[in-house]
């Protein structure tokens, strides 16, 4: 460890389309790659990705590059403490990935398993991005043609009636929830006062679950929604910055599901403790990527494969960038393979 070197560099990812989110339209996104190596074997490098979402990640700050440099300097001198990384979940995620990659020979095999041997796949949901009605319907048709049996639609950008009509169109073609699983993600777009009424209307369409119906940090309101909602609720943004409050948060809100995003929550170990707390309370979970490049997505997919997961995972963001990095991840319909 005393011979360890570390460096980082920015990388601007360019979207293939205008990616509509609740925080606006994304056309490009700047992430950072951390590289670590032993001075005696510089040809073997571990790589991790610092994935920062504007307006959402705790790491989203003006002095981020300065902080990355400080943390890597401490890392090289073996002075890095766990507390140094607590305010920087994306940096922790990147370092965990890079370390495991280096330990396994720098071949992007982060978590060896049947998945990395090509013996198993991970089923994923088809993500429908926000946009006008015609574009959203075209995405839905494309996903259905490719064989997806679980769709996740971002809602909150269009008029609610328009969004209901889009979901109705899917349900008209696939009346059975077993035939087509529908998930929706509001990204906190509903107000606490009107959320329950909207959830009741959505329930008529046999929705599997809704992610983050109201904005985070409204614990009392969210707990009431989880108790009364006819649709199972999944916490997403609610988990960010709450690693020291896992038990309190889950016991108080009692959601039906939680969504695990390693770059936002603080790496794989933190996600695993969230899973343990959730399972003790009978709360379900699944894993979702968060606009990583193939470096981060590869690590998240490999980690997911080592878990006792069930159902469709949210790992379908590998094809959204025109300048993504090469990867052994391959999508065949809704099946994510490593080959």
TrEMBL record:
Annotated keywords:
Metal-binding
* InterPro entries attached to this UniProt entry: Enolase-like_C_sf, Enolase-like_N, Enolase_C-like, Mandel_Rmase/mucon_lact_enz_CS, Mandelate_racemase_C
Pfam families to which the protein is assigned, alphabetical: MR_MLE_C
Superkingdom, according to UniProt? Bacteria
**Mandelate racemase/muconate lactonizing enzyme C-terminal domain ranges (all copies):** 133-232
A molecular function GO annotation: metal ion binding
Q: Name one GO biological process term.
A: amino acid catabolic process
Q: Which Gene3D superfamilies does the record associate with it?
A: Enolase-like C-terminal domain, Enolase-like, N-terminal domain
Q: What name has this protein been given in UniProt? A: Mandelate racemase / muconate lactonizing enzyme, C-terminal domain
Taxonomic source organism? Raineya orbicola
């Amino acid at each position: 460890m005393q011979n360890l070197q570390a460096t980082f560099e920015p990388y601007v990812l360019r979207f293939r389309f205008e990616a509509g989110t609740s925080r606006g339209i994304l056309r490009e996104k700047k992430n950072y790659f951390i590289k670590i190596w032993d001075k005696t074997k510089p040809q073997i490098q571990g790589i991790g990705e610092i994935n920062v979402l504007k307006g959402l990640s705790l790491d989203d700050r003006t002095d981020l590059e300065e902080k990355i440099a400080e943390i890597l300097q401490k890392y090289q001198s073996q002075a890095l403490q766990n507390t140094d990384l607590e305010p920087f979940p994306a940096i922790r995620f990147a370092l965990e990935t890079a370390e495991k990659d280096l330990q396994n020979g720098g071949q992007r095999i982060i978590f060896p398993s049947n998945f990395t041997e090509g013996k198993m796949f991970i089923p994923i949901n088809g993500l429908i991005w926000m946009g006008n009605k015609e574009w959203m319907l075209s995405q839905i048709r494309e996903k259905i043609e490719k064989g997806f049996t679980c769709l996740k639609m971002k809602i909150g950008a269009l008029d609610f009636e328009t969004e209901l009509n889009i979901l109705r169109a899917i349900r008209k073609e696939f009346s059975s929830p077993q035939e087509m699983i529908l998930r929706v993600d509001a990204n906190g777009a509903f107000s606490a006062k009107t959320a329950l009424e909207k959830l009741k209307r959505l329930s008529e369409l046999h929705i599997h679950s809704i992610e983050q119906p109201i904005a985070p940090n409204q614990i009392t309101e969210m707990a009431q929604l989880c108790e009364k909602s006819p649709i199972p609720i999944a916490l997403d943004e609610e988990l960010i910055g709450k690693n020291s409050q896992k038990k309190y948060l889950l016991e108080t809100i009692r959601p039906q599901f939680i969504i695990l995003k390693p770059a936002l929550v603080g790496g794989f170990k933190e996600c695993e403790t969230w899973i343990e707390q959730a399972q003790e309370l009978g709360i379900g979970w699944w894993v979702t990527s968060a606009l990583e490049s193939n470096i981060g997505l590869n690590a998240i997919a490999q980690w997911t494969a080592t878990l006792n997961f069930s159902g469709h995972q949210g790992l379908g963001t590998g094809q959204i960038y025109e300048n993504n990095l090469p990867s052994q991840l391959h999508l065949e319909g809704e099946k994510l393979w490593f080959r």
